[in-house]
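Two proteins were folded this term; both appear here.
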Amino acid sequence: MITSEVRLKIKKRDITMSVDGLTDLEVGHIGDQVEKKLDEIEKKTGQPDTSKLAIMAALEFAIELHNFKQRYANNKEADTRKIDEMTAALEGALDKKLF
């Protein structure tokens, strides 16, 4: 995987970090999402402390990631069951005599 160093500005702070496997454009978009999330939480809570806002944003993103993982696991399970059902139906159809 390619690692590149990117520079972002979030909440008037310059941030430089190493990122694997993403383009500068993708990292910039993610940075915009982080800034938007911080602004939303600040507006909602009135919390001026950026370190607390960062922790709250991290928790919201972590919850969102957890929910995506849960949905993925549930969908994968349902897909596997459906594939097993279809395989059994196809095998049953193949076992029948055509004439």
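Next, the second protein.
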Amino acid sequence: MKKIFAITLAGLILGSTVMASEYTKFSRKFIRHIKDCDAYEETVTSKYEDMTFQTIRKISGWKNGFCRYSEIITSEVGAYKLDCRFTDIQIDDLYEAMRDRSKKTEKYSLDVFVEKKNPKTGELEYVKDGVTEIKGNRAYVIWAKYQNNPFICKPSEITVKASDIGKNK
């Protein structure tokens, strides 16, 4: 049961970046603020397979050497939140990818992680459980690479029921 939940969670996180479109777009203001990790918040709405998604993107600024960023995505089936901690090198990578604005499709082998309980400590940890290939513009690929890595971006709140995934209400 836990493995099914972990796979569902991984699919939800991976799928959410796909839901935004494989050609991810960012406002000029967002790009300008992410460059130096300046505090900023914006809300965007997108459609994917007849469902509407609202994304709140929030840059909180630098804290303990990391750029703090959170994203809340809501749809008809629920909501989830990611809390990210980016290094300055990752911020540079994201900034350059967003500045590119190219629609040229890139392929990337994305690691898929699952939550597992450590038998010795009893703590939950993330382990790699395969790879999936994604395609999209450079901004989409770079964001997906970081957002789907639980060591960088952790899901902190899940409100979608596994039984509702893929259903339109």
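The chain has one domain: 2-164. The two ends are 26 Å apart (CA to CA). These notes refer to the second protein only.
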